[in-house]
């Protein structure tokens, strides 16, 4: 389906408003009416482009984590690369906002939780590389560290964790993530 420049602008405005609203209110409390008001359009336009709140949410949280290729990483440094990459995603605009929306919403909405599980199961497990035994389990362990960090630093905003510089977080978390990637699992 080809979109005109004006409809592309409208779609972009809707997605930006939806990400802000979902991030602030979570999936359950965000409404199509509020998102439309934030975008400066009629609610019927949201439905026209995205069919439903679920369709809008799916579009708003569509994300490629752009994880580093495991073959490009020095041996024993994948944990460091993954922690740094995720911190850069969360600290930046765009992907960080989408991840915030997903994490906030996944706690109360099963569709959001499933989306988060799919993203982390496919993208993180794949980023560990084909030579990693038990990739899904290791990917889940890595995700537990990264999502726990994100919850505490970006959602709950625990002051000591918020105050830590990125390099300190990388240094402190990378060995644990690296162990999940390469050490024998019990």
How is the topology of this model organized?
Layout: H1 5-29, H2 32-39, H3 43-50, H4 53-60, H5 78-91, H6 95-106, H7 110-127, H8 135-155, H9 159-163, H10 166-182
Helix pairs in contact: 1-2, 1-4, 1-6, 2-3, 3-4, 5-6, 5-10, 6-7, 7-8, 8-10
Question: How would you describe what is shown here?
Answer:
This protein is mainly alpha-helical. It has two domains: 5-60, Orthogonal Bundle (Arc Repressor Mutant, subunit A); 70-182, Tetracycline Repressor, domain 2 (Orthogonal Bundle). The model has no long low-confidence stretch (mean pLDDT 88). The longest helix is centred in the first third of the chain and has 25 residues, at 5-29. The chain has ten helices and no strands. The protein has helices at residues 5-29, 32-39, 43-50, 53-60, 78-91, 95-106, 110-127, 135-155, 159-163, 166-182.
Question: Which features does this protein show?
Answer:
186 residues, mainly alpha, Arc Repressor Mutant, subunit A
Give the gist of this structure.
By secondary structure, the chain is an all-alpha fold. It has helices at residues 5-29, 32-39, 43-50, 53-60, 78-91, 95-106, 110-127, 135-155, 159-163, 166-182.
CATH architecture of the largest domain: Orthogonal Bundle
Helix content: over 70%
Kindly provide the name of the CATH class of the largest domain.
Mainly Alpha
- List the domain count as a whole number: 2
**Average pLDDT number:** 88
């Amino acid at each position: 389906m080809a979109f005109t420049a004006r409809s592309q602008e409208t779609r972009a405005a809707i997605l930006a408003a939806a990400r802000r609203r979902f991030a602030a209110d979570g999936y359950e409390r965000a409404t199509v009416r509020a998102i439309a008001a934030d975008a400066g359009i009629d609610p019927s336009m949201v439905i026209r482009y995205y069919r439903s709140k679920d369709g809008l949410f799916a579009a708003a949280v569509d994300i490629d984590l752009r994880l580093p290729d495991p073959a490009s990483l020095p041996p024993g440094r994948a944990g460091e690369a993954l922690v740094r990459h995720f911190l850069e995603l969360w600290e930046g605009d765009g992907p960080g906002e989408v991840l915030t929306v997903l994490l906030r919403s996944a706690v109360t909405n099963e569709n959001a939780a499933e989306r988060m599980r799919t993203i982390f199961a496919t993208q993180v497990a794949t980023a560990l590389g084909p030579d990693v035994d038990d990739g899904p389990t290791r990917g889940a362990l890595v995700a537990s560290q990264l999502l726990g960090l994100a919850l505490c630093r970006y959602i709950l905003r625990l002051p000591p964790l918020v105050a830590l510089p990125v390099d300190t977080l990388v240094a402190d978390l990378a060995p644990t993530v690296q162990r999940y990637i390469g050490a024998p699992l019990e």
